[in-house]
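Hi R.,

Here's the chain you asked about this morning:
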Amino acid sequence: MAKKTRRTTTDTEPPPRPRQRARKDAVAELQEETAQTEQKQQDKGAESFYLLKSEPHEFSIDDLASKKNQTEPWDGVRNYQARNIMRGMKVGERAFFYHSNCKEPGIVGICEVVHEAYPDSTALDPASEKHDPKSTAEDPRWYMVDVKLVRRLGRLVSLQELKKYIDTDLKGMVLLSKGRLSVQPVSAQHWDFILGLEDQVSQEAAK
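And here is the predicted structure, written out as tokens:
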């Protein structure tokens, strides 16, 4: 049985139609600028945060929790921008675990990078549905990181809820402006605000 891979609708994208190229080029440029900003923060020693998207029917937070040491390679990424962001991840940095392409998409937990980027074995495996014949051991095209579950959130912080803050506290968040990217940077301000949403509701529920 083939190993599950982290698959989202963003991992492989169809070629854009001509009329869509200009818009997609502009989006790609903005995404690259975002990644460069995150890299500059890393170079300066600033703490970086991320968001990792996975379709729960392929690989859910329950699947991660069931793995040995609650740790698993985050493989199967087939988007260059997402790959580039992933290659900048450092051990100890944290990411939101996001369930995508499901009935109620949203953030369900937090994971931590425990191994920095190394060649994605699924790209090299002819038996894998994510095999890429252009990726070789000598010249790998795709990479993965190992992540470990830190904790589940006290509740689902849904995409619908996050969108309420698109023009205020979460303005500029990649998920809300360029949401198709499967590996995304998250600013420290947005990270703290989202955790505040979780904590606020938990406190209210306890009253």
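One quick note: Residues 12-16 have pLDDT under 50 and may be disordered.

Cheers,
M.
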